[in-house]
């Protein structure tokens, strides 16, 4: 450094590097008064010196054969010359120069370190090669010694080890006394440091006896010589390694010996011939599974038949027969209809039947007290859980009477939209309770329930409800039932009737007695010891549990783990939940349970059948799905002409997307919406499903400009984002008649107000004369009514409409008038038409707009 740099100033401390060995500090100055202090470190590396130089402690010499002299130590790094700062250097230039010098010094040290590491790595590699060569020579000498004296290998090995240990000890002692320059004495071999291994404690006599039994001599080749390098550790641990062999290795060795004793040729296993069931269409992989063959072998055989197929490709029955015969199996042909399950011929014998609880369905008009009656029987409150106080689903419950008898109740909706749900209830039931309000009489849904009951051939019990009201007239109800051929016992008929009050509980015990009496007359029995056969009462898509179906077991016992087919879906029973929310292991006949583990949501009314395995279940479900697809496509237009003919129709469409909480509600909503259609507008249900509103529903509704109808469901998070983005119209409901009323108003709004034409007058054109440059005026004789200015007019010629227009000008002689009455003559100018001839007729009418209702 120069003297100018060491001169202190009045403003700041002079900038420079500390002269210490460890570090130096540099202060940087930037614009806006910012400063920064940088620490520059210089790390010194320990210099390697030759042995004997000052500061070097010679290590103890190792005893090795022909050890090369140690490599020369690298020369110490040259000292960096001190560069004096030029005079007149600014602080910024000084900082930049110091940083540049520090970077150059770092690069130089890095290069030196890399060069030293490369040299050390090369020396270590050379040393490793030298040691490996010495070990190889030593191992060869040991192997030769062992081969020369095979009777005592262990003793020789021990002597060699002891000799090696003694030699090493003596060599180390001599090395301590000798100077570093003294050369070690040459030895036969150099022992290599190895990890200490415990020798197995085994009798030497046994090993010697086994070794003596082996043939000795030059012609015998020891197996140990084939295994590569033989070391002392390997010679000592040979027996221990044999004991550590796995059981599978021993089995393979025994099998190898057995094949060797049998002449070296293994006898081929006898091929198992199978009866392969082949439907009309089957995939190559499925056929391979049924034949217990490899799929690749079948594909290869098809390639030889000049058929380029893959394992996932479907082949016909004839091709499958060729493959089955090619591999030596027997084919069993079945048709597609044989794949499906036919339960009509599966009848249980009389010896296996046991009594079962009766299934009772409660039917009637809406608000006649069906659910309240069931609530009184169960002792729980079901009505509070239903929106608007009306039942929207089929509820299935089982109660136990005081006499320990079990009765299963099905509560069906009474609203007109749930016709199919009531019909399902009548088809799966044993007894129908027809609930009629004593103060209201017979209603449309009551009459419909009577028809369903008669069609199903089910006995009926009439429960006249609400007898606690003062305006109740039970006798009038009995008389009204005669109109529909329902004769109660009080009227000398065969239909039981009972007066009850769900509010006060009156007559409930008598109702239960009549149910048990009717069940005893029916002699209800079923076989519980067989695979279950059930009917789906209701199905829904639960957010946490997935597809859930409420089923009523008809016969057999449904158990957890059973594989089943229900409608177009298949699955395995994951859990069974009874009507009280408790999980059960099995469900017997006439027991309603919720089934979890379905592959999808089935339709209400589908039959559930337990099958033997999952393969059979998938096969039946696939066949049913194909049949459903074929049925849907059969209703599509046959050609383009039929499709365009449907598009040209004047009937407007009202597209909707329907999502409901359960399958029965979705089915009822679709039916109710179709009933709203007429000759002018019809409802087109783009999609109806069960579960929450998803992104696909929103995308479909957005593309079709259709509203989404949600019945007791809401959209998920992603669907809500799409709804806000695409401005899709959402409609949420929990009562079905509110839904139908609002959709009816929406459809009426699409059609617009109802236009009604009222004819005001008629006139005949007597003469036509010009009026102005382009218009023509018609001289009229009013035949009926009046002709008024500004009204709509329709010009006809030979009862054919020529033009529909309005009356722009009306004159009588030369005066403008507002109207001309019957029997008078006048002149008119029609707007937007000059096609007027004598003899034409003019019909004048006015249009009245009214609110449209469907």
TrEMBL record:
Biased composition (Low complexity) is annotated at 140-152, 163-173
Biased composition, class Pro residues, residue ranges: 67-80
Spans annotated as Disordered: 1-239
Please tell me where this protein is predominantly located: cytoplasm
Tr-type G domain boundaries = 355-525
Bias class Basic and acidic residues marks the residues at 50-59, 91-139, 195-209
Q: Does the keyword Nucleus apply?
A: no
Entry protein name: Translation initiation factor IF-2
Q: Which organism is it from?
A: Croceibacterium selenioxidans
């Amino acid at each position: 450094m120069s003297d100018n740099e060491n001169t202190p100033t009045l403003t700041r401390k002079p900038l420079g590097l500390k002269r210490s060995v460890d570090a130096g500090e540099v202060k940087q100055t930037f614009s806006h008064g910012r400063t920064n202090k940088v620490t520059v470190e210089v790390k010194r590396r320990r210099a390697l010196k030759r042995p004997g130089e000052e500061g070097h402690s010679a290590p103890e010499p190792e005893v090795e054969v022909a050890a090369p002299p140690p490599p020369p130590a690298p020369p110490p790094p040259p000292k960096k010359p001190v560069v004096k700062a030029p005079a007149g250097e600014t602080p910024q230039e000084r900082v930049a120069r110091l940083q540049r010098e520090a970077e150059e010094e770092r690069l130089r040290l890095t290069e030196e370190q890399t060069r030293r590491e490369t040299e050390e790595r090369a020396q270590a590699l050379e040393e490793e090669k030298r040691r490996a060569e010495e070990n190889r020579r030593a191992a060869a000498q040991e192997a030769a010694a062992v081969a020369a004296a095979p009777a005592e290998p262990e003793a020789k090995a021990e002597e060699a080890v002891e000799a090696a240990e003694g030699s090493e000890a003596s060599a180390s002692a001599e090395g301590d006394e000798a100077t570093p320059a003294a050369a070690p004495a040459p030895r036969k071999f150099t022992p290599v440091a190895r990890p200490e291994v415990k020798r197995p404690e085994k009798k030497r006599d046994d090993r010697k006896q086994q070794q003596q039994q082996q043939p000795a001599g030059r012609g015998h080749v020891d197996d140990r010589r084939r295994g590569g390098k033989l070391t002392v550790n390997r010679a000592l641990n040979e027996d221990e390694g044999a004991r550590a062999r796995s059981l599978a290795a021993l089995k393979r060795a025994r099998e190898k010996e057995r094949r060797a004793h049998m002449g070296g040729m293994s006898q081929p296993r006898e091929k198992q011939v199978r009866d392969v069931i082949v439907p009309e269409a089957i995939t190559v992989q499925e056929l391979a599974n049924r034949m217990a063959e490899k799929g690749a072998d079948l594909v290869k055989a098809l390639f030889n038949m000049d058929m380029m197929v893959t394992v996932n490709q479907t082949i016909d029955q004839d091709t499958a027969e060729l493959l089955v015969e090619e591999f030596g199996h027997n084919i069993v042909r079945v048709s597609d209809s044989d794949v499906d399950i036919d339960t009509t011929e599966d009848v249980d014998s009389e010896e296996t039947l046991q009594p079962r609880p009766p299934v009772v369905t409660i039917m009637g008009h809406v608000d006649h007290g069906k659910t309240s009656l069931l609530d009184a029987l169960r002792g729980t409150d079901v009505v509070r859980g239903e929106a608007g106080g009306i039942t929207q689903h089929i509820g299935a419950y089982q109660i136990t009477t005081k006499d320990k008898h079990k009765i299963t109740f099905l509560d069906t909706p009474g609203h007109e939209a749930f016709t199919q749900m009531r019909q399902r209830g009548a088809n799966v039931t044993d007894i129908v309770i027809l609930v009629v309000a004593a103060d209201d009489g017979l209603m449309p849904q009551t009459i419909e329930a009577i028809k369903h009951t008669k069609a199903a051939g089910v006995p009926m019990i009439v429960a006249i409800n609400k007898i606690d009201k003062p305006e109740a007239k039970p006798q009038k109800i009995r008389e009204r039932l005669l109109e529909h051929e329902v004769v109660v016992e009080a009227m000398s008929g065969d239909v039981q009737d009972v007066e009850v009050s769900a509010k006060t509980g009156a007559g409930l015990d008598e109702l239960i007695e009549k149910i048990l009496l009717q069940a005893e007359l029916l002699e209800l029995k079923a076989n519980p010891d067989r695979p279950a056969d059930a009917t789906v009462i209701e199905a829904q898509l639960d957010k946490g549990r997935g597809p859930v179906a409420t089923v009523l077991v008809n016969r057999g016992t449904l158990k957890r783990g059973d594989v089943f087919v229900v409608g177009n879906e298949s699955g395995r029973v994951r859990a069974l939940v009874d009507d009280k929310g408790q999980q059960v292991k099995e469900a017997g006949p006439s027991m309603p349970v919720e089934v979890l583990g379905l592959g999808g949501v089935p339709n209400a009314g589908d039959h559930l059948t337990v099958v033997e395995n999952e393969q059979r279940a998938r096969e039946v479900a696939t066949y049913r799905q194909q049949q459903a697809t074929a049925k849907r496509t059969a209703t599509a237009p046959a050609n383009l002409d039929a499709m365009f003919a449907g598009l040209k129709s004047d009937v407007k469409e009202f597209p909707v997307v329907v999502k409901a909480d359960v399958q029965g509600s979705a089915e009822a909503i679709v039916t109710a919406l179709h009933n709203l259609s007429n000759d002018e507008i019809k409802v087109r249900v783009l999609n109806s499903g069960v579960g929450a509103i998803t992104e696909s529903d929103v995308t479909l509704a957005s593309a079709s400009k259709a509203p989404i109808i949600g019945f007791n469901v809401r959209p998920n998070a992603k669907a809500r984002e799409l709804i806000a983005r695409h401005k899709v119209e959402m409609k949420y409901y929990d009562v079905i008649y509110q839904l139908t009323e609002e959709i009816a108003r929406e459809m009426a709004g699409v059609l617009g107000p109802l236009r009604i034409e009222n004819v005001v007058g008629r006139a005949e054109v007597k003469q036509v004369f010009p009026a102005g440059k382009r218009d023509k005026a018609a001289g009229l004789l009013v035949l009926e009514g009046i002709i008024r200015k500004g009204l709509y007019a329709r010009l006809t010629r030979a009862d054919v409409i020529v033009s529909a227009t309005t009356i722009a000008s009306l004159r009588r002689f030369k005066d403008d008038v507002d109207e001309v009455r019957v029997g008078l003559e006048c002149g008119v100018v029609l707007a937007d038409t000059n096609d007027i001839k004598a003899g034409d007729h003019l019909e004048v009418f006015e249009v009245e707009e009214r609110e449209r209702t469907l």
